[in-house]
Amino acid sequence: MRVPLLVLTGFLGAGKTTLLNALVARRAARNETGKLGVIVNELGEIGIDGALLGGNTSRQIELPGGCVCCVLGDDLDRTLAELVRANPGLEAIVLETTGVAEPLPIAWALDRQPVADLVRLAAVVTLVDATNFRGSRSVSVAVDAQVAYADVLLITKAELVGPDEVAAVTSEVRTLTAQALVRTGTTDIHVSWLEQVLRDPTLERPGLPASQPGSQTGSQPGGQDDGHVHDASCRHVDNPAARPVHGIDSIWTHVEGEVDLEELEDQLADLPANYVRIKGILRAVDRRRGELVRGWVAVHRVGPRVSSEPIEAQDSEEPRIVALGPAVDAGELAACLARAIAVNNA
Q: In terms of domains, do 183 and 103 share one?
């Protein structure tokens, strides 16, 4: 499978390095064993002594917590290829851009061969500095571009301004993008969300015996969903007592038959913004390359961005899909899937 890649962007001073430092520190503190690739502009920014490189800026440095760090070189293709090939089993990659980079050219580069065979773009995440965003828009066109092409906007430093300014910033970014998921919080909250996305949601049927059929909603036994960070903003629909303080639901549904992959991606992209995370494995047909390709695929949605990839799976595997978000609806998700069922596989 291709390695999911998250592009982390934002204007100068928005807090990208602070977020990455917190991510690296968290993984080290709990002795994380899975491998995460982190591509940065300066290794010194995340506490790596430049002397460790020995003059070789392409060298990869592995930190406690499974973070494999390297510098983004002039050749993005080569940087990614070397990182992926040198680290079998890499679970995900975070690519930090410069403060004045525009994400669209990076997205185009990731869609070209040979990179497209190695990684898939999971999401473009833009940090928006609540203290400086409105004043920075006239400084560089990159400020607006970073917001316009984002899948997720993380508003940083909100605690340094009043709620009126946060509301003004939120309103202003909405003039640039109507679909992106917008989240406001502290660095700790943003790191928790980032880890949740990098981990992927579980595909296990939530809170039910494996033999029970049909679309269901709820949480795993004990109120935990793998890949889901529980805080004051989450809710599970199988726990009515939690409704006053929680806001994230988890829904699960079985997928009957084969789906048309292109239609499914369009249908998932059209779901409203409250569907903040979707993952599924299912049987699909794909005609987009001029020939019919049939097989198992994994589909993902982070914010409004949908991606997919072929996978190996047993025919006994149960095709299924899970969605996370506030007030997500199992009926709406099932209807989305029904519209994508392939009716003519010839």
A: yes
Q: How far apart are CA 98 and CA 19, in angstroms?
A: 14
Q: Are residues 173 and 245 in the same domain?
A: no
Instruction: Give the total number of structural domains in the chain.
Output: 2
Is 18 in the same domain as 157?
A: yes
Q: Do 70 and 59 meet the contact criterion of CB atoms below 8 Å apart?
A: yes
SS3 17: helix
Q: Which domain holds residue 169?
A: 3-199
Give the CATH number of the domain where residue 281 resides: 3.30.1220.10
User: Rg (Cα) of the chain, in Å, rounded?
Assistant: 20
Mean pLDDT across the stretch 299-312? 88
pLDDT-derived band at 50 (thresholds 50, 70, 90) equals: very low
Question: pLDDT tens-digit profile of 225-260?
Answer: 334 443 333 333 333 333 322 367 888 888 888 999
> Residues 127, 156: contact at Cβ < 8 Å?
yes
Residues 96 and 16: beta-carbon distance below 8 Å? yes
**Integer Cα distance of 325 and 21 in angstroms:** 27
- Alpha carbon 322 to its chain's center: 15
* Through-space distance between the first and last CA atoms of the chain, rounded to whole angstroms: 27
Beta strands in 104-227 (DSSP E): 119-129, 152-156, 181-184, 216-217
Same domain, 226 and 151: no
328, two tokens: 């997500």
Domain final residue pick, 165, 199, 233: 199
Q: Is the pTM of this model over 0.85?
A: no
